[in-house]
Amino acid sequence: MDDVAQLRPGLVALVRRVVPPWLRDHAEDIVHSAIAQVIERGNPERSPSYLMRAAHNAAIDEIRRRIRRPEIGIEHDGEAHAVQAKTPDPARSTVSREIDRAIRACLAALAAPRRAAVMLFLLGYSRSEAEAMSGWGKKRTEHLTYRGLADMRDCLGAKGIAP
Amino acid sequence: MSDGFDGKLRDRFTEPPWGAESRTDCPDAEQIQAAARGEASFAEVEALLDHAAGCAACTVAWRFTREAIPSARRTDRRWLAIAAAVVVTLSAGVVLRTWINPPVELRSTARDAIRAAIPDGAELPRGAFVLRWTPGPPGTRYTVLVTDERLTPVARGTNLDATELRVSEEALAALPARARVLWQVRAILPDGTPVATPTFVARVAP
Asked: In this structure, which of A31, A72, A158, B101 has its CB flanked by the most CB atoms within 10 Å?
């Protein structure tokens, strides 16, 4: 059990770093739920690498669950509250969702290899990492990323959207 | 925030707003981790990226994986050895109890959620450290996990039909006065629906 508990500080910091601002205050809760799931599953394999991977899987699932259903926060007063305390105001929130929708629509419209290259770029992979993952080679990786981002700029521009 | 179109686009994309669209047919977290580790073919990676392109939840899942495995490169797996070595040095003392419970998508809706029936942060005496929660529909079964702040388990109740769990003095013996105790209820409703509460806090009274 101590093995699992040792993962907590790093996991909380990681969750806080990667989730959107509106979910950041829930990092502790997300990690507690994730680690509880690992404990509950009680897999007899308890190697440190297994525990780390299992905890990461559970954290990913917990984060995804909360992003899919952001309206389900339950507070102690017994009322349901949207967990959007960090959302500045409804109008801005609506605009942000429109921008997000437009970005995803433009990604969907990209040709497949450009989409993969742009996705890797957006997710923070370096050119050399993308090259290693895809096997495209340096020039092709650069070209696909460059052209893909140019397509994104055009597509969003046509929608009147600036990120 | 990053400057320029590319940076702003990256910031916007990786921090989806509240209510952003997500899909429900998402890949297993394990698949995303495997892809990030270079353990999947690029065709599989492309399929996962295509999904994430249209799914805010999986975008953040990828970001998590990317950050968790900073050298998630098929050409460099030194992180595996490093991570294993670091974690191996950590305490390997207490054994996880076997409690087979298949992973399920837990629900927690305003309509049917279970919630704490004691104030958050309440100080409870060691001799009467009773955690209580509101009941679900008749026939609901509850499982409660109680941990200290480091998430080391303190007590557990499984398959309960009562809506309270008494934590023994022995279980609390190692905790100092005013120590924070975290607890969470997971319930199975009579129709088989799993429900999870947020994590609640109680304190050990001096």
From this structure: A31
Q: pLDDT (tens digit, 9 = 90+) per residue, B48-62? A: 999 999 999 999 999
A42–B198 CB contact, under 8 Å: no
Assess if residue B198 is contained within a domain: yes
Cβ neighbours for B1, distance < 8 A, ≥ 6 positions apart:
B7, B8, B11
Domain ranges of chain A: 2-72, 90-158
Q: Which of B88, B109, B138 is where one domain is finished?
A: B88
CA distance A114 to chain B (A): 11
B66 shares its domain with B138: no
Residue among B46, B95, B152 whose CB faces A116 most closely: B46
How far apart (Å, rounded) are the C-alpha atoms in residues A60 and A119? Answer: 19
Phi first, then psi: what are they for B156, rounded to 5°? -150, 140
The answer as to whether B94 is a domain residue is no
Contact B108 A8 (CB under 8 A): no
B35: left (phi over 0), alpha (psi -120 to 50) or beta: alpha
Is B113 a member of any domain? no
Average pLDDT, chain B: 78
Candidates A43, A48, A80; nearest CB to B88: A48
* The CATH number, out of the four listed (1.10.1740, 2.60.40, 1.10.10, 3.40.50), of the domain defined by the range A90-158: 1.10.10
Q: What is the pLDDT of residue A147?
A: 97
- The bridge status of strand B164-167 relative to strand B153-160 is unpaired
Structural domains counted in chain B? 2
Chain B residue whose CA is closest to A90: B18
pTM as predicted: 0.66
What pLDDT does B3 receive?
A: 58
Residues of A in contact with B199 (CB under 8 A): 28-29, 32-33
pLDDT of residue B104: 42
Cα gap A64→A58, rounded to integer Å: 10
Contact check, Cβ <8 Å, B94/A1: yes
DSSP designation for A7:
H
Which pLDDT score, from 0 to 100, does residue B112 have?
52
Indicate if B142 and B82 belong to the same structural domain: no
Query: CA–CA separation, B156 vs A42, rounded Å?
Result: 13
